[in-house]
Design brief:
four-stranded antiparallel beta sheet; 8 helices; 22% strand
């Protein structure tokens, strides 16, 4: 899943980005409200972590602009302030949750997962079932034919995306966009490495290569 962090405290922003990346998220980071609104408008995110006190354009205005444009991406607001008025204003502009600094990283991750589960409840199921393959987005557990398969965070991210589009051909570029941040400029063939590992761990017949186009996860789960 892809997360946008809009936070002007650079140390905090980078710390959150490192932590969420380790959890398997693709994370983009910007430090002004204007840049945050631009990226959120130009790209598709599963969640936005949005500070309120930002240079250029504060978090309230960014949130309000996104909601006015019909963007329903979950927004978790961060602020150094602590007061009912601030929370009410943030929620009134369309934020989904609110966290006051300083906060525990464990609490932030729990809030992030709760928002993603809630979003799944409104749309896609948090559990993907493709034939004998089950991908649980909430617990990040994968089983095939009832046998649990241990995956790294990034392996799970790649598989989850393929499973969400089971039966479709998914290009390398789409997998990179979903699983890596926008600043990634490494070898796009990294996708081949992860697909190869997934094939080894999950067994044959599940992920096929469509020459010149990308990969397809069998709609029947292999």
């Amino acid at each position: 899943m892809r997360v946008l962090i809009v936070e002007d405290e650079r140390r905090l922003a980078l710390s959150l980005a490192r932590g969420l990346t380790a959890e398997g998220f693709a994370v983009d980071v910007v430090h002004t409200g204007t840049d945050g609104l631009h990226l959120a408008t130009e790209n598709s995110y599963d969640l936005v972590i949005l500070d309120i006190m930002l240079p250029g354009m504060n978090g309230y205005r960014v949130c309000a602009a996104l909601r006015a444009a019909g963007d329903e991406t979950p927004i978790l607001m961060l602020t150094a302030k602590d007061g009912e008025y601030d929370e009410a204003e943030g929620l009134d502009t369309g934020a989904d949750d609110y966290l006051t600094k300083p906060f525990s990283y464990v609490v932030l991750v729990a809030r992030v997962r709760a928002l993603l589960r809630r979003r799944g409840g409104r749309g896609a199921s948090p559990e993907l079932r493709v034939g004998g393959l089950t991908v649980d987005r909430a617990t990040r557990r994968v089983t095939r034919e009832g046998v649990e398969v241990t995956l790294t965070a990034k392996e799970f991210t790649v598989l989850e995306y393929l499973a969400s589009r089971a039966g479709e051909v998914v290009s390398k570029a789409e997998i990179l966009e979903h699983g890596w941040d926008f600043a990634y400029d490494g070898d796009p063939n990294i996708v081949e490495v992860y697909v190869s590992v997934l094939r080894r761990k999950l067994g044959p017949g599940l992920i096929t290569t469509v020459r010149g186009a990308g990969y397809r996860l069998a709609a029947t789960g292999g």
